[in-house]
């Protein structure tokens, strides 16, 4: 229950227990002059979406409410693709009572959430729109909608190289055309210049989109105008997977040699002389089939081996404090000296030992999480929701939602091209 106490944000009095939704990438921001209210996040981890326009807001509330009660096959399928709905809540902001939809947060549990809002459909106005509204909507995101039947109102991405957050809003999205839409997707998917897309990330996104596509190729109940797909993935998880995949060959070699380590495996392990590999010969199959004791020991020794290499690298640069003071040339390599019970080193751009230690910890924590039964959380680092239902109508004809289908199919084709690049190179 959110209390009536408040905190101040940008001249707004927010109810205690709420904060600005930092991962919002589209829609209206808080604006004092225009009196617009943005999306919030509550302490229970749920998203609060304001019902700002009475008619449109009521239509979206009714959509969620009716969907909870409908029992037909189409409605039950649709529930799989939309945020969890927890009803509505009244909150007082700027001395005004505002109704909020309470929804599940697609980024829940993500350390570095990368989020993109993709508005699907070449036509964004609903059947009740007047001529003025049609003209205004027709001018928005014109080039990208004309080329692909969708547009990108905004996205945020954490760069893999340095975890720096970058945000791209509607002004950026309105300038996108046939070519730059592809560049925007590459930015969002962390496809840096000259590098291949990450196969795991693309496949996970496509696997969800294919299911939504299958749904739209059967449903004739609804028409979705100006509705979006919200795509989210955790950049930290992607970074860890890329690093671990890079260590895959090393890991397999170390595990095969595990009985020669200074900490031998328990002789009671039946499989300590074998390396179970999955169907594709990958480490994931190994995780699923090897015994936990075997895995933990092997992973521990791989991590220990990496740490020993780091330690040797540190030792190679050790000199005394007096020798440091005698040096005449600027120090360009990491320099370390000892005093009793203390270790000092200079900063280095080429030997980032702090980062190496961080990577060791992340590697160890990630693999141990795999072993501790968190498989669902590990697999769920990529998520997609259908959102924004203020312009959803029941179909008046017995036909498919071809406006939505066109945009969705083109988005899938673009992502499949990324995947084809990976397959072709391999």
Q: What is the CA-CA span between the terminal residues?
A: 53 Å
Helix/sheet category: alpha+beta
Reported for the largest beta sheet, the result is: 5 strands, antiparallel
Radius of gyration: 26 Å
Helix fraction bin: 40-55%
Q: Strand sequence of the main sheet, in spatial order?
A: 3-4-5-7-6
Describe this structure in words.
By secondary structure, this protein is α+β, with helices and mostly antiparallel strands. The protein contains 15 helices and 16 strands. It has helices spanning about 55-70, 75-80, 130-140, 140-150, 170-175, 180-190, 200-215, 235-245, 250-255, 285-290, 290-315, 320-325, 355-370, 375-380, 400-425, and strands spanning about 5-10, 10-15, 20, 40, 45-50, 85-95, 95-105, 115-120, 150-160, 165-170, 220-225, 225-235, 335-340, 340-345, 380-385, 390-395. A 5-stranded antiparallel sheet has the order 3-4-5-7-6. The longest helix has 24 residues, at about 290-315. The N and C termini lie far apart (about 55 Å).
Helix-strand blueprint:
Blueprint: E1 6-9, E2 12-15, E3 18-20, E4 40-42, E5 47-50, H1 54-69, H2 73-78, E6 85-93, E7 96-103, E8 113-120, H3 131-139, H4 142-148, E9 150-158, E10 165-168, H5 170-174, H6 178-188, H7 199-216, E11 222-224, E12 227-234, H8 235-246, H9 248-256, H10 283-289, H11 292-315, H12 321-326, E13 336-339, E14 342-345, H13 353-371, H14 375-379, E15 382-387, E16 392-394, H15 402-425
Antiparallel strand pairs: 1-2, 3-4, 4-5, 5-7, 6-7, 8-9, 8-12, 9-10, 11-16, 12-15, 13-14
Helix pairs in contact: 7-15, 8-13, 9-11, 11-13
């Amino acid at each position: 229950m959110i209390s009536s106490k408040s905190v101040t944000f940008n001249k707004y009095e927010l109810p205690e227990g709420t904060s600005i939704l930092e991962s919002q990438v589209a829609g209206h921001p808080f604006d004092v002059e225009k009196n617009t209210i943005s999306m919030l996040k509550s302490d229970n981890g749920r998203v609060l979406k304001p019902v700002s326009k009475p008619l449109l807001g009521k239509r979206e509330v009714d959509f969620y409410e009716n969907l909870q009660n409908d029992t037909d096959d189409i409605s039950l399928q649709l529930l799989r693709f939309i945020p969890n709905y927890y009803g509505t809540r009244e909150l007082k902001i700027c001395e005004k009572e505002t109704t909020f939809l309470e929804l599940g947060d697609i980024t829940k549990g993500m350390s570095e959430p990368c989020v993109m809002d993709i508005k699907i459909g070449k036509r964004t106005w609903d059947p009740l729109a007047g001529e003025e509204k049609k003209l205004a909507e027709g001018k928005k995101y014109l080039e990208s909608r004309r080329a692909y039947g969708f547009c990108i109102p905004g996205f945020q991405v954490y760069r893999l190289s340095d975890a720096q957050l970058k945000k791209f809003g509607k002004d950026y999205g309105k300038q996108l055309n046939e070519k730059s839409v592809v560049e925007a997707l590459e930015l969002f998917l962390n496809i840096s210049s000259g590098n291949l897309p990450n196969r795991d990330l693309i496949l996970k996104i496509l696997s969800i989109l294919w299911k939504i596509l299958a749904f739209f190729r059967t449903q004739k109940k609804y028409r979705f105008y100006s509705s979006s797909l919200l795509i989210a993935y955790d950049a930290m998880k992607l970074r860890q997977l890329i690093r671990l995949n890079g260590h895959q060959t090393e890991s397999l070699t170390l595990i095969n040699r595990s009985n020669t380590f200074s900490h031998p495996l328990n002789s009671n392990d039946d499989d300590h002389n074998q390396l179970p590999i999955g169907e594709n010969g990958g480490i994931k199959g190994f995780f699923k089939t090897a015994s936990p004791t075997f895995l933990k020991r092997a992973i521990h020794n791989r991590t220990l081996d990496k740490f020993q290499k780091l330690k040797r690298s540190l030792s190679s640069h050790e000199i005394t404090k007096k020798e440091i003071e005698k040096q005449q040339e600027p120090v360009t390599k990491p320099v370390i000296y000892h005093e009793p019970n203390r270790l000092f080193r200079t900063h280095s751009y080429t030997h980032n030992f702090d980062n190496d230690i961080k990577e060791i910890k992340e590697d160890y924590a990630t693999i141990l999480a795999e072993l501790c039964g968190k498989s669902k959380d590990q697999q769920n680092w990529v998520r997609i929701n259908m959102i924004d239902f203020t312009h959803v109508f029941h179909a008046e004809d017995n036909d498919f939602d071809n406006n939505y289908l066109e945009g969705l199919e083109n988005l899938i084709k673009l992502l499949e091209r990324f995947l084809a690049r990976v397959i072709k190179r391999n």
